[in-house]
Amino acid sequence: MTTRWAIAFEAMDPKDTAHKWQVGISGDAYQRIRHSGHEKQVARLRLVREVLVSGTLRLYEGWSRPGKDERCYVYVGCPSRDYKSLTIDAPAPKGMVFLVFVLNDGTIDDWNWRPLSPSAGAEKNVPDGVTGSLIWPPPKQN
Amino acid sequence: MATTEAELIQFLRSNPPATKFVPYCHLSKEADALTVYFEGDPDYSKRLSDHITLYLSLETNEPVGCRIKGISGILEDLPNFVRVDHGGVRLSIIFFAFRGGADDDVLNAIKSLSRVADQREMVLEPAL
Fold first, then answer.
1. ipTM for the complex?
2. Chain B residue closest in CA terms to A36
């Protein structure tokens, strides 16, 4: 574990997708969900790790935040399991992908399942309501 | 230093969540977003509008929380319209600010969020 973050991972670098950058969850953020007894949010950190470290299927720049710069990122993955608690897992919800929201400084800000876009056509693993610019895969490989 | 799967599991087991869920809201200046959870059920997210993302129970599809983006402008404007007592703002008032121009789906979701926030007497308080 690092001093900057309570938990840190190596994820695809949005500025250079051939390389990695370090992202993480602050101690304050972890203590908040821990002390609130938000067990599924804690347990789903295993999904966060999976999507960031080895399961990034799509990477977007921008959260479409009103009036804000868009230098923030959405990692999209499709884990096969969900974690309801540290001891209970279940099959992943059908028709959904898992999103990890990361700020420009590498801080992991949120994570959750999201239904697939009904208007994605032949494209796979496209989440509904994510309107940022696609960084990965590059459009020609998409 | 990156966290391996084994290190992560060990960290989570060594720092387990409290046994009882307590509703909470968190204002992130960096993300300019307010995150609210009423219930701790396993959930998924559904984007309602540019500002509002709902968190819905995977089991019941009922709202268990929400995330509001672009919150700073709303909070800056609030004192012009609402008397703020004891430094805190009732969370239902925050939701009310997003009613203007919303379509029926968004309006219904906002009403639902406001009702639950009132029932839970949730208040957004400035950080000390």
1. 0.92
2. B22
